[in-house]
Amino acid sequence: MSTNAELYGQDFFTWTQTTAALIRAGKWYDLDREALAEEVESLGRSEHRELEHRLDGLLMHLLKWCWQPSGRQTGHSWRSTIREHRRQFTRLLRDSPSLRPRVALVLSESYINARVDASDETGLPLVTFPQACPWTAEQVLDADFWPEAPEAESKQPLRHINFDL
């Protein structure tokens, strides 16, 4: 039988199951401590990536909501998508409350990604969207916050008037 350290390089799934069994049996000296420490750290990085992913998606939909209001009434409601992103974000922060202070830190980086994605999805030029995030982390996560574009940018295009009588 392979040692725990050998299993880590050969068969990750078997390593996880064997490691869990060794921990439960209290066989601390049989563990591959370095591999176990790496995997525990990886779990934390995974949670942080989930925070970034959720924030990217939420910001993109808030941008679409704000700068392309015509899309609010389409079949797949942006409102429900924004609510779902916020629910998932709330669950993530409930399960890992130490991520909450990182939201403000990640906001500006996520906004850069969301801005590009919103431009791609809406077909609006990138310059349509502010260069810096126009909202605070608290606003983004607030279930009652529904942003509107600044007045100068939210004006509807002039309707075509038919002068043929």
In a few lines, what is going on in this structure?
This protein has 165 residues and is mostly helical. Helix content is 64%, strand content 0%.
- How many individual helices? 7
Instruction: State the end-to-end CA separation.
Output: 91 Å
What is the number of beta strands? 0
Taking pLDDT < 50 over at least 5 consecutive residues as the criterion, the unreliable ranges are 152-165
Oligomer: single chain
Task: Tell me what portion of residues adopts beta-strand conformation.
Answer: under 5%
Structural class: mainly alpha
Q: Give Rg in angstroms.
A: 23 Å
Task: Name the helix and strand elements from N-terminus to C-terminus, one letter apiece.
Answer: HHHHHHH
- Which bin fits the share of residues in helices? 55-70%
Principal-axis shape equals elongated
Average pLDDT taken over every residue: 86
Task: Report the sheet with the most strands, covering strand number, pairing sense and barrel closure.
Answer: none
